[in-house]
Amino acid sequence: MSNFKRRVLVVEDDPFVGSLLAEALKSQGFEVQHVDSALKAKKALKTFDPDAALLDIGLGTGPSGIDLAQYLRLKHPQIAPILLTRQSVGTDAASIPEGVGFLRKSLISDTAYLVSALEDALRDRGNPVRHDAIIEPALRDLTKNQREVLHLLALGYSNAEIAKQRGITVSGAEQNVTAIFKAFGLDRNNAVDRRVEVVRRYIAAVGIPERTQE
Questions:
Q1: Which of 4, 58, 99, 138 is least enclosed, having the fewest CB within 10 Å?
Q2: Beta bridge mates, 19
Q3: Of 106, 133, 160, the domain-final residue
Q4: Are residues 200 and 166 in the same domain?
């Protein structure tokens, strides 16, 4: 019987999440190494030759997971990279190199799903799973500015606070919010509260945003 094990490099700066991913994959027969930064990942590549790499997009200070994915595609094309994040990739989609997978952590229901995504990435590197494609259709019609305003809406901020954070007038914030309602097909005659509805659909599409500042 062959003792061959496929190798996965886990790059995750949250030690708890990184440990969970590593242990889950080890339980499925993978050989795993966990590091917490892009720089440590590059060092690990000198001694650990992975078949795939799970890369958290947000790696704190220093290069991001997307930066590392770009490096891997250029310098180590034999490695199948998959990006992991709690959020939809949103405006960073164009930065993801061709052939790189993208998984939202909220949609990883169990270890079997994660293993399946890895198997797909290893088998068909030209067409990896992409959760950023699973998106509320109305979000595609929003401008970058409107998406950022919608993100602030989902954080629970008022129009006045949105205006403050965006450096615009309250009237300007209200105009952006109205344009978002229109993109979602909501008008004043809807039975639902428009503000609640767009936030509900945003969260369903991209997950609950994290408020980093109060």
A1: 4
A2: none
A3: 133
A4: yes
What confidence score (pLDDT) does residue 112 get? Answer: 78
Give the model's pLDDT for residue 105: 72
Report how far residue 147's alpha carbon sits from residue 118's, in angstroms, rounded to the nearest whole number: 30
Q: Please give the single-letter amino acid code of residue 16.
A: F
> Are residues 157 and 63 located together in one domain of the fold?
no
175 or 133, higher pLDDT: 175
Say yes or no: 55 and 78 in one domain: yes
Domain end position, chosen among 110, 133, 156: 133
131, burial (CB in 10 Å: exposed 0-12, middle 13-18, buried 19+): buried
**Burial (CB count <10 Å: 0-12, 13-18, 19+), residue 110:** exposed
Q: How many domains does the chain have?
A: 2
Close Cβ partners of 194 (under 8 Å, ≥ 6 residues apart): 181, 184, 186, 187, 188
For 13-72, how does the pLDDT look when each residue is reduced to its tens digit (9 = 90+)? 888 888 988 998 898 889 999 999 999 999 999 999 999 999 988 887 888 888 898 899
Mutual angle of helices 144-154 and 194-206, in 10-degree steps: 100
